[in-house]
TrEMBL record:
Lineage, highest ranks first: Bacteria, Bacillati, Bacillota, Bacilli, Bacillales
Source species, domain of life: Bacteria
Entry-linked InterPro entries: Brnchd-chn_aa_trnsp_Livcs (IPR004685)
Coiled-coil blocks: none
Organism: Bacillus safensis
Identification of the protein by name: Branched-chain amino acid transport system carrier protein
GO BP of this protein: isoleucine transport; L-leucine transport
An MF annotation (GO) of this entry: L-valine transmembrane transporter activity
Physiological role: Component of the transport system for branched-chain amino acids.
Length: 446
């Protein structure tokens, strides 16, 4: 029985986790953030790192410490809530948003730069590309474990090397100076970056991928719970360090790019990255970057399709893993053809609504030993969080709320910054604690 992983094994598992996390959103959002934040880029990327790196790390740690996945964490409020939340979670990081995005980003970076203007405006290239991409995903997701591990080990160093070349070239021969911030990043760049980090979906994915890390550690002969948790945390730190370095680097590339690439649309990170690679290295830059991104997105797509297949086939036993994987792949193909900008626009309101719930679930899991079975604390905190999260989601969807939005802006702290749910979440937990003191004793240890 082992009680400690070797540094080689820790690094290998950390790189595997990085490869699972590192897909479409990780490449396309930081450059646009950097370009729009301008001189405020470091504050903005600081906020982005909180939700894009910090929260995923906390999610992995929460799973490692509790030994349970997404449903197990959400079940602490109520089993019915746990099922509903987990289904929404898997659909969000699965066929509704994240999986289709891997295909569209691969297309935007790997193929679109080489098409003529007429071809790029046609729906046919994306349609054919998405059929091929998700056909390969389906075939490989039928037996994903060895493939994802191998691609992760081979691809991750190559992909990091490609990004490093772009960044080093951008520093050595800058594309231009860092400009003034866009209005959206003038007043509160830290909080704007914090909300942008939602789009990576990595905090949601962390409580799914966390179990993959726990399993990988156990497969290396570790059985003692504390040692497993410690090994998972170390592997999580490796992945988090890699993500942070990539985000900071790509944000700088974006911040220095406006003069060379023009101001791209807020949802066109793939286009910005392609223009930057072409400016710095010519067409060869697009070829190398496109190939690396294609395999990175394919790895993530396989991992997510496989995770959805395992979860939904266990939730609905009448449907086999193979059937679920086929349905998820076909549906993702359809959604991918909406285009990258449309997928991002549709995903934002949903992410704004469910991310706060995921954050609260993760944070409460660290207090579980003190909560000690008082379910009402979870319920009250999540109800208070959910009310404001849903309102934020409706605002993000541009659904009119009458005068409610103005009232909340004037009365709820931090609401204007997009995190009006934070203080209500704390108040809900406190109210739940007070109620529990009078209604239910804590769970006694077995």
């Amino acid at each position: 029985m082992k009680n400690k992983l070797s540094q080689t094994d820790t690094l290998a598992i950390g790189l595997m986790l990085f490869a699972l996390f590192f897909g479409a959103g990780n490449m396309i959002f930081p450059p646009v953030l950097g370009q729009y934040a301008g001189e405020n880029v470091w504050l903005a990327i600081g906020g982005f790192l909180l939700t894009g790196v910090g929260l995923p790390l906390l999610g992995v740690i929460a799973v490692a410490l509790t030994g349970t996945g997404a449903k197990g964490l959400a079940d602490k409020a109520h089993p019915t809530f746990g099922t509903i939340f987990t289904v929404i979670l898997y659909l969000s990081i699965g066929p509704f948003f994240a999986i289709p995005r891997t295909g569209t980003v691969s297309y935007e970076i790997g193929l679109a730069p080489f098409l003529s203007e007429a071809q790029s405006e046609s729906w046919i290239p994306l349609f054919l590309f998405s059929i091929a991409f998700f056909g390969i995903t389906y075939a490989l997701a039928l037996n994903p474990s060895k493939l994802v591990d191998r691609i992760g080990k081979i691809l991750t160093p190559i992909l990091l090397a490609v990004i490093a070349l772009i960044v080093i070239k951008a520093i050595a021969t800058p594309m231009g100076g860092i400009g003034s911030p866009h209005p959206t990043y003038e007043g509160s760049p830290l909080f704007t970056g914090f909300l942008e980090g939602y789009k990576t979906m990595d905090a949601l994915a962390s409580i799914v991928f966390g179990i993959v890390v726990v399993t990988a550690v156990k497969e290396r002969g570790m059985t003692e719970r504390k040692s497993i948790a410690a090994a998972c945390i170390k592997a999580g730190l490796v992945a988090a360090a890699g993500l942070a370095l990539v985000y900071i680097s790509l944000a700088y590339v974006g911040a220095s790019s406006p003069e060379a690439t023009g101001m791209v649309g807020a949802n066109e990170g793939g286009k910005l990255l392609s223009l930057s690679a072409n400016f710095l290295f010519g067409s060869a830059g697009n070829i190398v970057l496109g190939a690396a991104i294609l395999f990175a997105c394919l790895t993530t797509s396989i991992g997510l399709v496989s995770s959805c297949g395992e979860y939904f086939s266990s939730l609905f036993p009448r449907f086999s893993y193979r059937t679920v994987v086929l349905v998820v792949s076909l549906f993702s193909t359809f959604v991918a053809n909406l285009g990258l900008a449309q997928i991002i626009s549709l995903s934002v309101p949903v992410l704004v609504a469910i991310y706060p719930l995921a954050i609260v679930i993760i944070l409460l899991s660290f207090l579980d030993r003190w909560i000690n079975g008082r379910r009402i604390i979870y319920i009250a905190s999540l109800i208070f969080t959910g009310i404001f999260a849903v309102i934020d989601g409706l605002v993000a969807a541009k659904i009119p709320l009458g005068g409610l939005n103005e009232i909340l802006e004037a009365t709820v702290p931090l609401y204007k910054l997009g995190i009006g749910w934070a203080i209500p979440a704390v108040l809900g937990a406190i109210i739940g604690l007070l109620i529990s003191l009078f209604t239910s004793p804590p769970k006694q240890p077995a």
